[in-house]
């Protein structure tokens, strides 16, 4: 175990030197850890870039309904050897120069661009919700590591307290041995327990360092300590109250926006069957030959395809398939979200029930240890009874601390699963 911890720490130290990570000056809260992770998160950054890409695609679609204006200049060279002649030379010029300002506007295209633009707006909304979902998932990851470290910190503190009690117990037994009221075997058994506790403490420290190394990798920071400022979990509302909020989850709203987007793309695809009418106009600043007196012209173009080899039909079918897929994905996301809420709600209720019973058990175990210790001094019980009572008390306290921190984590995860977004999330 120690070798693994050393290897992880070595890798992390190299990472810190290579990346020039931020060094934390003190214990960090959960929200502070999340802010650091958010600044360096690739997954959130990729989601945000996806939104920008969608916005660029929307601008590209919008350009289809806007006019295009520009300047065009051409110079054409051609053979005039066989052209008709006049008294002054050939009727056809060997070079033809033409320069004009032009404009082109689509007058009617079945309004498919407008449907596509509406679809792209919904797609952008879906991607924006994906960004929010990425942030929530990042918060969950940070919280999971945070409470794992907090659990190890609490375990190390409890074990240190138990080591202290065992050491005090050894000192007391040595004094009793000196006056003939204890046996050396009692001292040895207590010292053995203390050594075992120290081994457990080292194991907990190793797990803490490993979890902290993972957290530091996620945060791109050199954090050495955390501070748990989260309130204890309380009894949740009814499951129906949480299920009502599922529709507000970012991933559910993203799936709904994507379904609406695909429906608009189906409309756009179907409108390809309609004819298109374009207007192109030119204003000439330079012409030669017979067209020199003509300053401008306008061209109306009507395109009404009757058969395209099935291309349009295949595009419509593809768009309809995408719409059905989006509807199925929305149904799946909703079902998964509801299942996640039910699981976390049930888990939180179970943890709170365990915590209530462990509190009572820990209080009784502490009282039992106090009684056993006093009865030992009166010669009513032996040292093994005292050690067993001490172990039961501390093990129960460790279990209580673990359940309390797990309930905090699950309480946060339940709120996130129900669609709540912590205030710390920008």
Mind telling me the CATH class?
A: Mainly Alpha
Record the strand order, biggest sheet: 2-5-7-8
* Alpha-carbon distance between the two ends: 39 Å
Spans of at least 5 consecutive residues with low confidence:
1-19
Helical content stands at 55-70%
Q: Indicate the radius of gyration in whole angstroms.
A: 38 Å
Shape: elongated
CATH superfamily: Outer membrane efflux proteins (OEP)
Structural class computed from helices and strand pairing:
alpha+beta
The CATH topology name reads: Outer membrane efflux proteins (OEP)
Instruction: Identify the CATH architecture.
Output: Up-down Bundle
Number of helices: 9
Report the average pLDDT across residues.
Answer: 86
Beta content comes to 5-15%
Total of domains: 1
| Major pleated sheet | 4 strands, antiparallel
